[in-house]
Amino acid sequence: MESIRNFCIIAHIDHGKSTLADRMMELTGTVQKRDMKSQLLDSMDLEREKGITIKLTPVRMRHEGYDLNLIDTPGHVDFSYEVSRSLQACEGAVLVVDASQGIQAQTLANVYLAMEQDLTIIPVLNKVDLPAADVPRVSKEVINLLGCSEDDIIKISAKTGENVDQVLAAIVERIPAPTSPLEQQLVKNNTSQGVSLYRGEELQVPEIPLRALIFDSYYDDYRGVILYVRVVDGELKKNDQIYMMATRAHGLALEIGKLAPGMTPEPVMHTGEIGYIVTNLKTTREAKVGDTVTLKKYFI
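Below the sequence we write its predicted structure tokens.
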């Protein structure tokens, strides 16, 4: 888990979230140059036509030995529920502010959502290369909002790629690695009772039950219901029998894996990871957003 960073990009509409995501994927080599196109994570025709993000989209990038799980969120006020779902699955957020427009209404709304989740916020000023950019004024606005220092703000141009590498470095340095709450609680309880979990040098931890948060789901005509999840505790293997805590539906994890940005199958998903589960469920009503996925064997 030490090498995992989960974060999302939040901003007002048209402040450059998707462009920054594009540059990050280019820098980390997630997407080949020949496959690269603008707004790569915006897959819907309407998103590409209007230049806005409607659906949240996760992608995993590799950078200097770290797994960076990014969730690109919508910026429009009508889709703030999508943003709140993304924040639940992350430990940090990159706040993008347009250096020519300053802090807008949706920027404030998203910042307050992130603060409620106690996330680490990395402030980024975008479009500093524009003639209309007023970096000193907007920097003061960001400092007043977050209470950060001038040095914490990263000034970039997502269009040209200027200083985007600094954003990746800040994500690795500032955003904490994910933790397993159940494992921490187990260690804490046993320590307080004087029970040693160590055998020699090795930590002996009993099996941690699977808990995975569903932060998005959709129905695919050919594959059935596909879940986007964040594994909070435990691990999930391919062909495991899964159980939804809220709807009490159960099914099979036919395929699991990461989004890089296309579906890449993996044999197992560990604590702290973000990925997808292809299930044999027939409708998304059986796997609602916000529900917890666990293993059926715990309920037999």
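The CA atoms of residues 15 and 98 lie 5 Å apart.
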